[in-house]
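re: that complex we talked abt at group meeting.

here r the seqs, copy pasted straight from the sheet so there may be weird spacing, ignore it
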Amino acid sequence: QQQVKQSPQSLIVQKGGIPIINCAYENTAFDYFPWYQQFPGKGPALLIAIRPDVSEKKEGRFTISFNKSAKQFSLHIMDSQPGDSATYFCAASIGTSGSRLTFGEGTQLTVNP
Amino acid sequence: EAEVAQSPRYKITEKSQAVAFWCDPISGHATLYWYRQILGQGPELLVQFQDESVVDDSQLPKDRFSAERLKGVDSTLKIQPAELGDSAMYLCASRRDSSTDTQYFGPGTRLTVL
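got the structure back, here u go
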């Protein structure tokens, strides 16, 4: 059962643009929502994460927006650069119990120079 | 900066052969996870250890997959016999303890079954 749905599957923006990636979840027990960045042939690397007690979190050029009532969250990348070209995964877990991460399907982002 | 180590990075095997992957988590991390990532998809958990104990292996195909973490430090994931559908990236991740949610991933082992 797919519990985290991610869109779009792929995204192309120009340098300086603001790509937005969206995720929706089903399990209301989830309380930890990280975003991972993955380059080809590498393992996922944590970018930023949020808990449902806040509606927005910003770290550098990356911002998560969280809507608990809609069970949705999104990643915004400000002033995107070609080096941001990668696959981005949203995920969710019951963080306090250290449970498995349930990942979305991934979004392949291309930032053109 | 401490990292999760995995070996080998790449493995090519023929179907019906046995393969094994090794993971060394970040020092002091109590929780260890093995995920499988099929090309073009997100990782999916195979097995989770807390110290040396298995706490979640509900998605592990136990007829052919086994995992162990005997001393609660490093871990081995084994497949015997390998099937064509096992071709994937096998990722190990670790978490320090219950005070943090963050899981850190290793570089993965890319398995190709011919």
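couple things i noticed - The two ends of chain B are 37 Å apart (CA to CA). The CA atoms of residues 4 and 26 of chain B lie 5 Å apart.
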